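User: My instructor asked us to take a sequence, write out its structure as C-alpha cells, and then describe one feature of it. I'm not sure where to start. Here is the sequence I was given:
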Amino acid sequence: MATKRAVSLCWVTSPSTHTSALVEKILANKAAACVNVTKGAESNYVWEGEVKREKEDVLMIKTTKDRIKSIITLMEAHHPYDCPEVVSVDVSDGSEPYLDWVRDSVPTPENHYTKNWKSQVSSPLKA
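Assistant: Let's start with the prediction itself. The C-alpha cells for your sequence are:
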C-alpha cells in the first residue's frame, strides 16, 4: 500500500488590502485545496523595538506538506510585509474523505505543471 501524502495546515497573516490577491495566487498556483479567511484579527507584536497592534486577516491554508515551500515562495514574492508570517503544522488525524480531497486537489511539486493534472476535483461538500 502506498504511503499517503502528509496534509498540513498553514497560516499566513495579511493586511486586508492584500488578502484577496494572496489567496488568488495560492489557489491559481495549485498550492492549496482551500483557503479560509478570518477577517480583522487583532495582532499584537514587537517590530523594530516597538509594540504594534494591527488588524490583519488570517489565512488558514489546507495543503500538503510537500507544497509548504511553494506557499513560502509565493508569500516571499507577493506579500507586502518584509517578514510575512508563514507557519505550518502537520495534520495527524481527521476526516479521511476530507484529507483525501485535500491530497487529490493539490498536485505534487513534480506534477504541478503537467497537463494531465486534474482540472476539476470534486468538492467535499455534498450537493
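For the description part of your assignment, you could build on this observation: The radius of gyration is 16 Å. Try explaining in your own words what that tells you about the chain.
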